[in-house]
Amino acid sequence: MQDIVAWRFVVTGKVQGVFFRASTAREATRLGLRGHALNRADGAVEVLAIGPETGVAKLHRWLQRGPPAARVENVQVMVQPDGDHASIAGFRTG
Q1: What are 40-60's pLDDT values in tens digits?
Q2: Residue ranges of domains in the chain, CATH in brackets
């Protein structure tokens, strides 16, 4: 069994108003991940992905292009410290 990891991404470019969060939630759910995709005030989208490292890495690759209407400029990755993410269920947007 793979270790569960938690990675936080900050995605910049044309990523708000192009179904980026909803598309991210669909992809993350397909990969069996938990977490969230949230709009930030600075125009970026913040994504927290929790799950097996292979699934989180696949989501990272997907985030680099996003849905068809998006224009991703950069994806910053921050590995989250080991902690209890058990309270996070499903994948939400906001």
Answers
A1: 999 999 999 999 999 999 999
A2: 4-84 (3.30.70.100)
